[in-house]
């Protein structure tokens, strides 16, 4: 019984820590209370190989749904790339899932043009990511803890590599 109480206490503490970090560049971040399991979305990597969110449990993740035709998405991508460069990849991953569909061939050249070196390329499989994750606006970023629970989300673009963004991402890793 003590173990379960400790887990609940840790989850509550994480939510409380996160609420104190919702300021500055992260002021539009909306906490998910209580944290809820994220559906096990399947998407594709750059080589069209399937990846499931559950395969990444054990790492905190920032799932970002975006497209090359979305101006706020394009504006935000360099910040996400700098965020990933600052974070330990073995404990934290930015997962930018492209919703480009028919314009999928534009994604790799976009990464090259923007000099996005730290982000990996992922694609929505079967155009299901938005409905599966309950997203209605691009870009939307969903912060997931190492156990696979949504801690919160931010709709619209953000400056993720700011001190506030870095602090929030680090808090998600604990």
Automatic annotation (TrEMBL):
MF terms from GO for this chain are: antioxidant activity; disulfide oxidoreductase activity
- Sequence ranges assigned to domain Thioredoxin in this UniProt record: 32-174
Recorded coiled-coil stretches: none
Q: Which organism is it from?
A: Reyranella soli
What is the protein's name according to its record? Thioredoxin domain-containing protein
Is this entry keyworded Mitochondrion? Answer: no
Query: InterPro entries from the entry?
Result: AhpC/TSA (IPR000866), Thioredoxin-like_sf (IPR036249), Thioredoxin_CS (IPR017937), Thioredoxin_domain (IPR013766), Thioredoxin_ResA/DsbE_sf (IPR050553)
The alphabetical list of record keywords is: Redox-active center
- CDD domains attached to this UniProt entry: TlpA_like_family
């Amino acid at each position: 019984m003590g173990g379960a109480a400790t887990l609940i206490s840790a989850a509550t503490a994480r939510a409380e820590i996160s609420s104190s970090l919702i300021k500055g560049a992260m002021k539009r971040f909306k906490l998910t209370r209580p944290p809820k399991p994220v559906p096990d979305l399947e998407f594709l990597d750059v080589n069209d190989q399937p990846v499931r969110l559950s395969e990444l449990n054990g790492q905190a993740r920032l799932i970002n749904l975006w497209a090359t035709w979305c101006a706020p998405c394009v504006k935000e991508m360099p910040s996400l790339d700098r965020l990933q460069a600052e974070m330990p990849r073995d404990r934290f991953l930015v997962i930018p899932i492209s919703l480009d569909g028919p314009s999928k061939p534009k994604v790799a050249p976009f990464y090259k043009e923007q000099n996005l070196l730290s982000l990996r390329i992922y694609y929505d499989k079967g155009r299901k990511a938005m409905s599966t994750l309950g997203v209605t606006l691009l870009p939307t970023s969903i912060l997931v803890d190492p156990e696979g629970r949504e801690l919160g989300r931010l709709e619209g673009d953000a400056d993720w590599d700011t001190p506030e963004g870095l602090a929030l991402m680090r808090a998600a890793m604990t």
